[in-house]
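#lab-general

N.A. 3:47 PM
ok so I finally got the sequence cleaned up, no stray characters, all 214 residues accounted for. can someone with queue access submit it? mine expired

B.Y. 3:52 PM
send it over

N.A. 3:53 PM
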Amino acid sequence: MKFRYFLLLLMVTPLYEAAGQSHSGFSLSVTGSYAPTLTIYTDDIQNSASIGIQASYFDEDYTRMEYGFHYSRGYNNSVSYLMGLSAAAVFQITDGLRLKPGLGVQEFKMADRSCRTTWRSILDTIFDVDKQCRDDSHTSFIGFISLEYQLAEPFSLFLHTTYRTILSSVRKETETVLLEGPNGETVERTNYTTDRSFYGSGTAVGAGFRIYFN
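B.Y. 4:20 PM
back already:
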């Protein structure tokens, strides 16, 4: 992934003074991120890079918060994609400069999962009906700070840094037992247990550009 060229493009883009975000509206952003080490359960992924898109809504009238839906790919060949939600407070520092601290919850979808569609995994979680969907779960909680500079309307550039923790639920085989079937045949059954762990996954930095639809 040519992440270095993405950052270079953002660095050499000229900055023009513009008015700050003054009313509610939607926006769409593209983000590139880099993590020196990304820990997922027992795997330490080195030099992890990703590209993502985010659709956001800024509520200026009531909460002065920005709410976003994020989807990204990359990280490592063991990760299929990451998807999640976030919320950030918006502080106007100057006319063109904004500071956005926030929190998010996301989930890593792994490449080797059995359940390929979200609705199947939701049904299995609620009703326990699909044994093929009992995949390992890696839910991510992030804290982040973003610094955004408004270009000529409706464009802006931003830098961000994040810290990630993960709650993992991993099925592990405990034993295999032989049982006698109703007709005297031998049936093999494998027993599993769920190993749950909560841990720090690491920090990341990134940059991106945003377009506002006001």
